[in-house]
Design goal:
This protein has helices at 8-11, 14-28, 35-50, 60-71, 75-95, 103-128, 138-180, 184-209, 226-243, 262-280, 334-344, 367-370, and strands at residues 221-225, 246-251, 257-261, 287-295, 299-306, 347-353, 358-365. By secondary structure, it is of the alpha+beta class. It folds into 2 domains: 5-209, no CATH class; 221-370, Histidine kinase-like ATPase, C-terminal domain (Heat Shock Protein 90, 2-Layer Sandwich), CATH 3.30.565. Strand 6 and strand 7 form a beta hairpin. It starts with 7 loop residues before the first helix and ends with a helix. Keywords: ATP-binding, Kinase, Nucleotide-binding, Phosphoprotein, Transferase, Two-component regulatory system.
């Protein structure tokens, strides 16, 4: 698979990015590495955030981080090493002056950094917070379960919110530059992106609050076209669809309408589509997704299908439960949130899966039935 075209110009600035990161890292960890090794580590990091044709789990940068971790005698120092190695890449991306850095490339590179942070958190959590050997009482076990639950929730929320917050910071930087250059037309477009990312944060918070027993921030039900909901979501997902070479087919009647909580349903569709792209990453080619509408007298159905590997049978009965996932870096909250949101909207979400395709079915009761 070729590298995405929108990263070609960024890769031409490779030396500038690596040099800047190496400078930041050497200030954070003086006297630990010589310049040659530090540059090679920086090169692995730059390649990681730009080489989307290599799956994250198999990229050499993860191995480089773990090798660096082993240099330290204390685990705490090693964790700090890994943490700063990743965090300083985000700082580098913000601060290097690169006129060739497009919005699409910026968002994709930040997404890759988010994936690495999630991987690191999961690895550290498993190694540092494993149950005590003598912890055999029911009270202690229950306490550990609650602490683990809180940690997983916190990790998931941080992961989901950090990406749009990082994008907002980047857009503000670009906005300031274009205002100084009196390029108000482009500045206005950046304001649109910032507004979209704020909506994304609100959407994520709404999803987490769907687990609350109290109706916190209940969103009003509105009439909205399916096409309007999808246009917003696909405007954010298109860079990833292009990057992953996924062919998306839409079969949406112009008049298809829903009576729903807009932000909540946007999150449901966003989660389902992202999960589909994740599943298709296991295919080398011929990656296909489709979104179609079916209606009857009582319900409107949105079908989201992909031709990726089938869902493991052992997940069939629990896939919508919190913290159930077969992804190494997954939090297992996405589909659980989707289920809760759909129930809050007088609907449901189900799935079928076989060797040819996996289909998630979103069922929405029509407004006349709800009222």
């Amino acid at each position: 698979m070729d590298k995405p075209n929108f990263l070609t110009d960024v890769r031409s600035m490779k030396h500038a990015y690596i040099s800047y990161w190496s400078k930041l890292f050497s200030k954070r960890f003086p006297d630990h590495y010589d310049a040659t090794y530090l540059y090679s580590l920086g090169e692995a990091g730059f390649n990681y955030i730009t080489e989307y044709h290599i799956a994250a789990d198999f990229h050499p940068f993860q191995r480089s981080l773990m090798e660096g971790f082993l240099v330290f005698e204390k685990q705490e120092e090693g964790v700090a090493f890994i943490f700063w190695a990743v965090l300083l890449w985000r700082q580098t991306l913000h601060e290097v002056e690169d006129s060739s850095l497009t919005l699409a490339a910026y968002k994709q590179m930040n997404s890759r950094i988010d994936d690495l942070e999630s991987f690191i958190f999961v690895k550290y959590w498993k190694s540092d917070l494993s149950p005590d050997q003598d912890n055999s009482s029911a009270i202690n076990l229950q306490h550990d379960d609650r602490i683990s639950l809180l940690g997983k929730m916190a990790a998931s929320m941080a992961h989901e919110i950090r990406n749009p917050m990082t994008s907002i910071k980047g857009f503000l930087k670009l906005l300031r530059h274009n205002i100084n250059e009196n390029n108000y037309e482009r500045a206005d477009s950046y304001l649109g992106f910032i507004e979209d990312e704020c909506d994304q944060i609100l959407m994520q918070v709404t999803g987490f609050l769907s687990f609350s027993r109290k109706p916190i921030m209940d969103e009003e039900m509105v009439h909205i076209s399916v096409r309007q909901v999808l246009d917003h979501i696909l405007s954010l997902l298109n860079p990833r669809l292009i990057n992953e070479n996924v062919d998306l087919l839409l079969d949406i009647p112009p008049g298809a309408m829903l009576y729903v909580q807009k932000m909540g349903i946007q999150q449901v569709l966003s989660n389902v589509l992202n999960n589909g792209i994740d599943a298709l990453s296991e295919l080398r080619s011929d990656k296909k997704m489709s979104i179609s509408i079916v209606e009857d007298s009582f319900n409107t159905y949105i079908q989201v299908a992909n031709n990726g590997p089938r869902v493991p049978e052992e997940l069939y009965s629990t896939i919508f439960n919190p913290f159930v996932t077969d992804k190494e870096n997954g939090t297992g909250l996405g589909l659980a949130i989707c289920k809760q949101i759909m129930l809050n909207n007088e609907g449901d979400i189900t799935f079928t899966s076989n060797e040819k395709e996996t289909v998630f079915m979103l069922t929405f009761r029509k407004a006349s039935i709800i009222s």
